[in-house]
Amino acid sequence: MAPTVERKNINLAPLKAANVPIFFIVGGPGSGKGTQCDKIVAKYGLTHLSSGDLLRDEVKSGSPRGAQLTAIMESGALVPLEVVLDLVKEAMLKAIEKGSKGFLIDGYPREVAQGQQFESEIQEAKLVLFFDVAEETLVKRLLHRAQTSGRADDNIDTIKKRLHTFVTSTAPVVDYYDSKGKLVRINAEGSVDDIFAVVVANLDKVTSKI
Ligand SMILES: Nc1ncnc2c1ncn2[C@@H]1O[C@H](COP(=O)(O)OP(=O)(O)O)[C@@H](O)[C@H]1O
Ligand SMILES: Nc1ncnc2c1ncn2[C@H]1C[C@H](O)[C@@H](COP(=O)(O)OP(=O)(O)O)O1
Ligand SMILES: [Mg+2]
């Protein structure tokens, strides 16, 4: 039986009232989500929240659920939906207090239910950017990142499991938003700058801020 997850009572009113644009950033592990988000932040001033970073921060904080989270992440599986969603909500609220103009939610949703729950409890995403990269390239990039990342999940065994999780749980997210007409599929095999040019062309269509 799955462990019971304690939900926090989070007041979402300020976040809903702000009604700022929200973009989901989806792609396999190593597809360049973080890399492209850094560039989007620099150009558009949106707030970048990576669910993986939020989870790693939670682990570092030494909170009781930290050890459990580490084990799940090292196994390449997904952390329970409620844990991630609460962390994302809290981070969004903090950013709204500081005047955020909008959000890049990176690495989320990783399963269709995450997207549905987020959108029913918070707000609909404006667009979903999907960075499309072949598995072979993902493995190469992650093994290269492993040399400097210090991440416990950047090793070949965990990478294989994360790829499996991506195919089984996250690929349906891509189809789900495609069928809603919200998906922007970006071939992300090229150079960082070439990919960013495609990102900009798509974001410029929906945002007036340059
Ligand atoms: N277009 C690209 N071409 C080559 N390497 C890339 C590209 N984009 C990102 N990388 C590298 O691939 C690795 C994974 O990128 P990252 O942004 O951390 O991806 P994600 O957040 O999707 O896991 C990093 O080492 C990064 O420097
Ligand atoms: N939205 C989410 N739901 C469940 N687990 C998540 C999650 N986001 C991250 N995790 C967990 C499982 C992932 O394998 C791990 C690392 O995530 P990440 O930092 O986003 O990886 P990457 O940037 O390589 O795609 O954290
Ligand atoms: Mg990342």
UniProtKB/TrEMBL annotation:
Keywords: ATP-binding, Cytoplasm, Kinase, Nucleotide-binding, Transferase. The keyword Repressor does not apply. Residues 144-154 are annotated as: LID. Residues 50-79 are annotated as: NMPbind. InterPro entries: Adenylat/UMP-CMP_kin, Adenylat_kinase_CS, AK1, AK1/5, P-loop_NTPase. One of its GO terms (biological process) is AMP metabolic process. It is found in: Cytoplasm. The keyword Nucleotide-binding applies. It catalyses: GTP + UDP = UTP + GDP; dAMP + ATP = dADP + ADP; CMP + ATP = CDP + ADP; dCMP + ATP = dCDP + ADP. Its EC number is 2.7.4.3. Belongs to the adenylate kinase family. AK1 subfamily. Monomer. Consists of three domains, a large central CORE domain and two small peripheral domains, NMPbind and LID, which undergo movements during catalysis. The LID domain closes over the site of phosphoryl transfer upon ATP binding. Assembling and dissambling the active center during each catalytic cycle provides an effective means to prevent ATP hydrolysis. Catalyzes the reversible transfer of the terminal phosphate group between ATP and AMP. Plays an important role in cellular energy homeostasis and in adenine nucleotide metabolism. Catalyzes the phosphorylation of pyrimidine nucleoside monophosphates at the expense of ATP. Plays an important role in de novo pyrimidine nucleotide biosynthesis. Has preference for UMP and CMP as phosphate acceptors. This is Adenylate kinase isoenzyme 1. It comes from Caenorhabditis tropicalis.
